[in-house]
Amino acid sequence: MTAQFDTDGLHATVPLAAQLGIRVVSAAPEAVRLEIDWREELCTAAGVLHGGVLMSLADTAGAVCTVLNLPEGATGTTTVESKTNLLAAVRGGTVIASARPLKVGGTLIVVETEMHDAGDRLVAKTAQTQAVLRNA
Known about the structure:
The structure is a single chain. This protein is of the alpha+beta class. The chain has one domain: Roll (Thiol Ester Dehydrase, Chain A). 22% of the residues lie in helices and 42% in strands. It is built from three helices and six strands. The longest helix has 17 residues, at 51-67.
């Protein structure tokens, strides 16, 4: 499976990433970094970035990391499990998600993603399992 993981390629592959304004900082099999800016329309009460936005950022970073680690013959990936701990409120600035593979297998890939604000404060951490898809 060939995929281009600059911001334009990500937006073409994952339209939700374009809607949210997620950008690619770097993408390699050993680590993926994506970022998103705080925007009022992405917030809940009191100007706090919605937890679902952070979870979407983590899921997208994990998916990119998985695609970059797919074994030969795989046709894609899908999230089968994801757990996020939301650790601090984000009320402005940029959030950077850093994803890395913990286990790369033939049927499942496990990825860990940490999200930090511009001050390098840990705001959320996600562990997810991605299924490796193959044609029947």
